[in-house]
Design brief:
16 helices; alpha/beta; single chain
Length: 411
């Protein structure tokens, strides 16, 4: 049976709630609850190596620390007091942490491998690992939604407009994400909606605002697009972006911005109210079908570049669509459910992750080499979050795998 915690003054201590970690100035944890003897306290918790660090950091004269209800220290080398002279309840943990666990923690922090536990990894039980990966996936979705939430603010909480913008960014991939975002900002979805029944007008608007119709081409279809855009530009007071912002260098022909623009225009033409259709999709096959659009064969995207190529225009492949769903569509579906009290949509997004094959990248291959089975994008996305947000930052104490290692006497 575990011994009850005691403060440095011998009072019985129960930590009811550890609070919320604070990443800014002030106490380390906010809104904690502790019970000291028979009294329940609510406030903040501060953590130091030595109790004397309270004075060294001058917390006694900082009002942000007036509401500290517990001072947790490794070594209790001196008693510390509030500004009014009363002693601060203090918990010394030096004799609580087993020496073996402390040695393991120091070893983890000093490792120079890809991740700290690479040579001594101990996996939790299958159930605990699944639960941990589920938490990691939700964290990753929340991180991915931060940019979309900023778009919602810019667009006065207009979900379709914001979804249109973030979809445009995806079509630009990493290289041309910013020009695609500028395109979406300069070409409102409301303008495109007025011409949704005319493919050539949708293409004219997309290529025109993208800056690709500022010159003449030796192609009748493109010149027809140019005439359409000259009229529409004046009608809606549209401002094209500079064509020079688009990057073709070190890009495969299949990812040339002109190729992506044709695909993007085709998606817009065939899928009005796109977000609404995403929300209505009942299975992953419906979502994949929604984005499986054949681009217009009359519009040759390779005519917009200076050098010729024998490459052919192709629709988005299944792998590209799955990446679009993983990185853009499903995070928005998850957020929409959370923000609109439709938990079934958030749950559906998580289920859809299980229905998509895992990404094949350096991070997923690394985890597989350590014996972790990756069956779907649910696991691969969670493990990307684990590597980037925990392993890279040596947050072993916040990781369920790290805790398993520290608690395992054989590791």
């Amino acid at each position: 049976m575990k011994q009850p915690l005691k403060t440095s003054n011998g009072n019985t201590l129960l930590i009811v709630h550890s609070g919320t970690i604070n990443t800014d100035a002030g106490p380390d944890f906010f809104n904690a609850k502790v019970k000291i003897d028979d009294t329940l306290w609510a406030g903040n918790i501060e953590i130091h190596i030595n109790a004397s660090d309270w004075k060294n950091h001058k917390h006694q004269s900082d009002k942000k620390y007036d509401n500290v209800i517990l001072h947790v220290v490794y070594h209790y080398d001196t008693e510390v007091f509030y500004a009014n002279g009363k002693p601060i309840p203090t918990l010394e943990i030096k004799n609580i942490i087993p020496p073996l666990m402390l040695r393991k923690y120091h070893q983890l922090q000093l490792q120079q491998n890809t991740i700290a536990c690479e040579k001594i990894i101990v996996l939790p039980s299958s159930l605990n690992l699944t639960n941990w990966l589920g938490r990691l996936l939700i964290e990753r979705l929340q991180d991915k939604c931060e940019f979309f939430e900023s778009l919602l603010i810019q667009n006065n909480n207009h979900w379709e407009e914001s979804f249109y913008t973030i979809t445009a960014r995806y079509f630009g991939m990493k290289t041309n994400a910013q020009p695609f975002e500028w395109l979406a900002q300069n070409l409102p979805l409301s303008v495109l909606a007025k011409h949704k029944n005319s493919l050539i007008q949708v293409e004219a608007l997309v290529f025109g605002v993208a800056g690709f119709l500022e010159e003449d081409y030796q192609n009748s279809y493109i010149n027809l697009m140019k005439r359409e855009f000259d009229f529409l530009k004046t009608k809606y007071n549209l401002k094209p972006i500079d064509k020079s912002v688009w990057k073709f260098a070190r890009t495969r022909p299949a990812n040339f911005p002109s190729v992506r623009l044709v695909q993007f225009a085709s998606l817009i033409y065939h899928s009005s109210h796109l977000l609404s259709k995403v929300l209505e999709a009942k299975n992953i096959q419906e979502l994949i079908k929604l984005y499986s659009i054949n681009p217009n064969k009359k519009l040759n995207p390779f005519l917009f570049i200076a050098h010729q190529t024998n490459a052919k225009q192709t629709p988005l492949g299944k792998s590209s669509i799955e990446l679009l769903l993983i990185n853009t569509v499903l995070p928005v579906l998850f957020l929409y459910g959370k923000r609109n009290d439709k938990e079934e949509l958030s749950e559906r997004a998580l289920i859809f992750y299980e229905d998509i094959k895992p990404e094949n990248n350096a991070i997923s291959r690394f985890w597989q080499s350590l014996g972790i089975e990756i069956k779907s994008s649910f696991e691969s996305q969670a493990l990307i979050q684990l590597k980037n947000k925990y392993c890279n930052e040596l947050k072993c104490l916040s990781c369920n795998i790290g805790k398993e290692i520290l608690l395992n006497n054989n590791a």
